[in-house]
Design a protein that fits this description.
Layout (H helix, E strand, L loop, with lengths): L7 H6 L2 H9 L5 E5 L5 H10 L2 E6 L2 H9 L4 E3 L14 E7 L8 H11 E9 L4 H10 L23 H11 L1 E9 L11 H7 L2 E8 L3
Parallel strand pairs: 1-2, 1-4, 2-3, 4-5
Antiparallel strand pairs: 5-7, 6-7
Helix pairs in contact: 2-3
Length: 213
């Protein structure tokens, strides 16, 4: 079962960014999934990569879902509780579609890079042209498939673009090992210049390591 690619059924039902993250994780790795929700990524990684997976989730309902699936997940807040994990405790520390919902994104990213030998981060790209057009034409906070809630219901408080995130990586001393932008159909924008990725990319996935001191 090690390194077995996701089945066609899994590909049809799993978020495309989670499938991409699973590709980035080596088989048998120790993984911490921060903000793991109902455990979809952890379950995918256990089934396809045989990882030693742990999760942190702020909502009790999410923890309950995970435990019911047999996953090792504790209740915790990324903004406060990552300090409890020792340096280099995991091969990968993952934050999937959660960075924009944290109170302190810079601190959280620094903690991911401290805890994991690699950090993997995915997020919706607020520089996407659909968002730009909704702001320009309607003058209202946008609602898209990747940002489906109205502004007053959304858990997201710190939106960023792909270029913003790259600036943050420089600030915290992160090396970008792999960077993938996905369009509205989940297709990878391979070979597309950064300025275009920032316009037509709907979400992005980054594989990071900390720069040597």
């Amino acid at each position: 079962m090690l390194n077995r690619p996701p089945s066609a059924g899994a590909a049809a039902t799993t978020r495309v960014d989670l499938l991409l993250i699973a590709e980035m994780v080596r088989a048998g790795a120790r993984v911490l999934d921060v903000g793991c929700g109902a455990g979809e990524l952890l379950k995918l990684l256990e089934d396809t990569k045989n990882v030693d997976g742990r999760g942190v989730e702020i909502s009790q309902s999410g923890v309950n879902f995970c435990v019911a699936k047999g996953l090792s997940v504790v209740q915790g807040d990324a903004d406060r509780d990552l300090i409890n994990y020792p340096d280099g405790a995991f091969d990968y520390a993952i934050l999937s579609q959660t960075l924009q919902a944290t109170q302190r994104p810079k601190y959280v990213l620094e903690e991911l890079l401290r805890i994991g030998r690699h950090a993997i981060v995915s997020f919706p790209n607020f520089g996407n042209w659909r968002i730009r057009m909704q702001l320009l034409v309607e003058g209202k906070m946008p609602v898209t498939p990747n940002l489906p809630e109205a502004w007053y219901l959304s858990p997201n408080i710190h939106f960023c673009t792909i270029k913003d995130f790259l600036d943050l990586c420089d600030e915290v001393g992160a090396d970008v090992e792999q960077q993938v932008a996905l369009n509205a159909y989940g297709r990878r924008l391979n070979g597309v210049p950064l300025f275009l990725q920032n316009i037509i990319g709907e979400q992005a996935v980054f594989l990071l390591t900390r720069k040597p001191r």
